[in-house]
Amino acid sequence: MRYLFIIGGHTIGTTACQFFSNRLRNFTANGAADPSIDPSFLSQLQTLCPQNSGATNRVAFDTGSQNKFDNSYYANLRNGRGILQSDQALWNDASTKTFVQRYLGIRGLLGLRFNVEFGKSMVKMGNIGVKTGVDGEIRKICSAFN
Length: 146
Known about the structure:
Elements: H1 2-7, E1 14-16, H2 39-48, E2 58-60, H3 72-78, H4 85-92, H5 94-104, H6 114-126
Antiparallel strand pairs: 1-2
Helix pairs in contact: 3-5, 4-5
């Protein structure tokens, strides 16, 4: 369950088109886009990330509330507007969909409170020891090995 909380951090921030452009074109064997993307959102993403150019263009993870720490990220997943395939999979997979619904409040008063759970998760993650030397490294650039 910790993964769901941390990935909710995508409520703020952006990503480069190169990290999800495979979903926009030629995702399936017949050359179509990822069918889990809302069609109207797909056209927006294709405009923001033109084919054969714009790989470094940036797109907000949480469209509509990209500068606000809230649970709208999960509403985007419900509506087929997850940017990364791994994000959208949280809604599409039965084992994690229930948690996304709880963050949305779909299950009523028993729903999880995203901001509270995210805080708890960050404390847990902060207690994980940093691995250095032969056990690991602190990356200078998150997406690349040193």
